[in-house]
Amino acid sequence: MKYEPVIGLEVHAQLTTDSKIFCGCSTRFAAEPNTQTCPVCAGMPGALPVMNKKALEYTIKTGLAMNCRISPFSRFARKNYFYPDLPKGYQISQYELPICIDGHIEIVVDEDVKRIGITRIHMEEDAGKNIHEGASGYSLVDLNRACVPLMEIVSEPDIRTPADAALYMKKLRTILRYLGVCDGNMEQGSLRCDANISIRPIGETAFGTRTELKNINSFRFVERAIDYEIARQTRVLEEGGHVVQETRLWDSAAGRTYSMRSKEEAHDYRYFPDPDLVPMVVDDAWVEEIRSSLVELPDVRRERFVNLYKLPEDDADMLTSDRMLADWFEDVVKAGAEPKAASNWVMGELMRLLNEENLSLEDCPLKPGQLAAMLKLMNDDVISGKIAKTVFEEMYRTGKSPDVIVKEKGLVQISDSSELEKIIKKLLDDSPKEVERYLAGETKLIGFFVGRVMKDTKGKANPKIVNDLLRKMLRSSF
Amino acid sequence: MELYTKTISECQSLIRNGQISSVELTRSVLGRIASLNERLGAYITVTGDTAFRQAEEADKIIRSQPVENLPPLMGIPVAVKDNMCTEGVRTTCASALLDDFVPPYESTVTGRLAAEGYVLLGKTNMDEFAMGSSNETSAFYSVKNPWNTEMAPGGSSGGSAVAVAADACIGALGSDTGGSIRQPAALCGVVGLKPTYGRVSRYGLVAFASSLDQIGPLAKTVKDAAILLQAIAGPDTNDSTCAPFEVPDFTSSLGRDIKGIKVGIPKQYFIEGMHPRVEDSVKKAINQLESLGAKAVEVDLPHTDYAVSTYYILATSEASSNLARFDGVRFGVRRQKESDLMDMYTTTRSAGFGPEVKRRIMLGTYALSSGYYDAYYLKAQQVRTLIKQDFEHAFNSVDIMACPTTPAPAFRLGEKLDDPLQMYLNDIFTISANLAGLPGISVPCGFTDDNLPVGLQLLGRPFDEENLLMVAHAYEQSTDWHKIKPKLLDI
Q1: Poorest-pLDDT segment among A242-246, A470-474, B263-267
Q2: Which domain range does residue B63 map to?
Q3: Contact predicate A230/A162, CB 8 Å
Q4: Would the CB atoms of A272 and B377 count as touching at under 8 Å?
Q5: How many CB atoms lie within 10 A of CB B199?
Q6: What backbone phi and psi angles, to 5 degrees, belong to B33?
Q7: pLDDT score, position B429
Q8: Any domain includes B351
Q9: How many Å is the Cα radius of gyration of chain A?
């Protein structure tokens, strides 16, 4: 029997606010343990939470970007369970009245646009961290992360393949980074993904029994973990068994999932409205104000890149996958560069150099104006494409302007015909055999001659003129 | 007359006139505490040294500042219930679990008292985590009623009520979740005010039931209660349930004529089986209000019967969650038999909480459990709304309500300890004000044949403490009940 997977993702995104969601403590990552705590986030007796308005604004912004309805009335609930990293013995979250509902985002799969529903986006506080290393017979607790604001973005079970799940995650990350509400760093835990997975015979409309997959902590593993789980469930069914509803953990080292707790062991969280926080009443005017402050979102921007700059879909897709990258590209174009050439250089050489050093665009030593200036030199036949690569790398390493580099290194293209003629004449004189073979019809050898001229001129010869001269001079030596 | 017998307003003028110093006053009250506390058990912690330091500090300011610049509570010794966090001063909630807890921060209310230059006498005894109506659930010792030391003082703010009644403080703070200020005030013959929910910040009050808890004063007179309320009331950025309303001048409305004020008499608050002398005293008090020009009319609060059960669902539900933080991880007494997490939780909490606290945690946990939530918690919330609407409706035609604070006077220590239901019924007349968020005050209105005090309860519209205090003050000033002190204590 053929099975079809049904996948829904619950994504936790840490908001980039400076302070925590219910107190004024800093959210800075990797500080000394328990240095960013106060009576509120440490759950001291008598301490009370007070809502961080910025966190609410960021969540509304995200909801709008994901086509959600913003609830005019929403509230926080307590999710009760005991764990040492949860100082109050409950997590302040949202339950029956989340702030954002009924949205969707689109992913592109082989040129088809697929719409993935967003059931809800709600706000909650993060827990602290238990530390088991360096202690024997006991564990340590670091509450720096406790009370850091999170959004939980819950998708509809609209995803059908592990690859689509990965695309969805990437799209989510792109949107969050465009909005500047989350840095999208999965390795540092600022973006976390749980997956609900079930399979059913193709054609069946009812859902199968699902498992919840936790601990998928890297983009690389989204696809692999779900893949593994689908294969596992398929095997269970094919062997005549049935899938057990449970929570499973992804073990990235072993490349497999294993059972964490069964449905019977599941917590009863005893949700109820948090009486310490008043309901949030969001008025339309504020929502509209936030809507009008939204940046151009990736889908719209991609369309614009295709229409305005006449870029191929793939280029537009790639460039708009990251807001900073798209901004960088547009800055090159604004500085006068031809869009397709700019796109080629940004996605080619620039990405290559950044990747080599594992740098992000944020740390890029090169400025868009430098690339535009270099492209102008190419366009004006001052340098060749081959030389341009040298210039580009030099700009990247030294930060100098392309003109300075060309002048200092004497990289100006040789377009002077008489000078090139001399060089070609000498080459032809030195290579009688090759000339003979060329004249005998082996015209491919033109490449050999061009190569030699470029080598002799250290790449500075204008390749077009070299080509023309070579053909003319070879013919005349007939 | 000993200084410890004085009221806040008397002490204010004595201090301002330079007749006494804060140190003298503090010494007098601390002496009174020392002679009584073993017998009455009103205080868990007495902060003698810091009290003298604060008094000296106050005296310095009093000497150097013009009188009109002095805040009302400058140099006044006050007792604080042991569930309000005081930075550097042990705060136990009368629980073994918090025996060694010294808060690293100050509650908003005590911070405000400190800003006025008060003198903290110590932390008063209470029912454990404010759960109880007799003060017998304290993990340390029970509190004795100064009118008869075989009697309970009421609870949960029993220590504060007894401290006021026995002149072991000049004024005190308590907290009221279902009657915990008003009921012990009535049983000890003092004034106790529960403000409107949201009038006073709860920041730093160790929560019992967050949607019901409210801090308020216990005092020797209505005027003193008004002065204390003035100091602690008002918006607080640390508590989002604290209302952003400006605070009126409570003392300025005192002494106004109450002619024409409409007093509602809720018919459901005079029930069969209530103590005849309580009923009698309260009815006489209502007559007295009428003789002062008030107009008494009967009002109907049809959902009153459901108040106690509604309360015990909601309060315990919230409590079960509020008390989850006492897990032995960060503060309090950690107990452990074996080195695993579950053992640490269960041993710490089994040994740390008393039976009443455990009973309520279990009750609340059950009410919130999946499958029961709709039938209990949600239903109780709906009934709460009905109770609130009862009052809204009734307050359309009256300005204030008058009724007994409790159905009976103080009961014997131990009498109801093994019968939680009987104990819970003690709060039958006080609970509705918490459910509806209304302000309520208990003022002394007589004595039983056994010489036990009786309390008159007045209830007001939300955020209308002004009228409440005005009527209470008018009644008090027209009677002598508040001047009668327990004789037992003459030593």
Answers
A1: A470-474
A2: 3-261
A3: yes
A4: yes
A5: 24
A6: -60, -45
A7: 96
A8: no
A9: 30
Pick left, alpha or beta for residue B25 (phi over 0 → left; psi -120 to 50 → alpha; otherwise beta): alpha
Q: DSSP string covering B94-131, please?
A: T-GGGTT---SS--HHHHHHHHTT-EEEEEE--SGGG-
For residue A48, CA distances in Å to A45, A90, A275, B105 come to 9, 13, 10, 12
Alpha carbon distance A420, A409 (integer Å):
20
pLDDT digits (tens, 9 = 90+) for B386-437: 999 999 999 999 999 999 999 999 999 999 888 888 888 889 999 999 999 9
Interface test with B, best of A272, A278, A280 (most B CBs within 10 A): A272
Q: Which residue has the higher pLDDT, A418 or B242?
A: B242
d(CA B327, CA A17): 30
| Number of domains making up chain B | 1
Interchain proximity B91–A45, CB inside 8 Å: yes
Residue with tokens 């238990």: A130
Residue A299 in contact with residue A106, Cβ under 8 Å?
Answer: yes
A-chain residues near B369 (CB < 8 A): 268, 270
Q: Is residue B177 part of a domain?
A: yes
Whether the CB of B97 is below 8 Å from some CB of chain A: the reply is no
The answer to whether the peptide bond before residue B156 is cis (omega within 30 degrees of 0) is yes
Chain A residue nearest residue B93, CA to CA: A45
The three-state secondary structure class of A186 is: coil
The confidence score (pLDDT) of residue A383 equals 84
Measured in angstroms, the CA of A198 and the nearest CA of chain B are apart by 25
Which domains does chain A show, CATH number per domain?
A: 3-288 (no CATH), 296-409 (no CATH), 417-476 (1.10.10.410)
A69: β partners: A101
Surface-to-core class of residue A269, CB atoms within 10 Å of its CB (0-12 exposed, 13-18 middle, 19+ buried):
middle
The tokens for A340 are 């397709």
**Amino acid, single-letter form, for residue A283:** D
Q: Are A172 and A195 contacting, i.e. CB atoms less than 8 angstroms apart?
A: no
- Other Cβ atoms closer than 10 A to B149: 16
B135 contacts B116 by C-beta, under 8 angstroms: no
Distance from CA of B166 to the nearest CA of A (A): 29
CATH number for the domain spanning B168: value is 3.90.1300.10
Question: Tens digits of per-residue pLDDT, A30-48?
Answer: 899 999 999 999 999 999 9
Please, which residues have CB within 8 angstroms of residue A370's CB and are 6 or more apart in sequence?
A: A395, A399, A401, A402
CA–CA gap between residue A363 and residue A361 (Å, rounded): 5
- Residue type at position B468: L
Rounded Cα gap, residues A58 and B450, in angstroms: 65
Does any CB of chain A come closer than 8 Å to the CB of residue B102?
no
| Token pair in block for residue A6 | 């049904």
Token readout for A259 is 């059972």
The shortest C-alpha distance from A95 to chain B (Å) reads 14
The residue type found at A90 is Y
Polymer length of chain A? 478
On whether residue B305 sits in a domain, the answer given is no
Phi, psi of B167 (to 5 degrees): 60, 30
pLDDT bucket at B80, cuts 50 / 70 / 90: very high
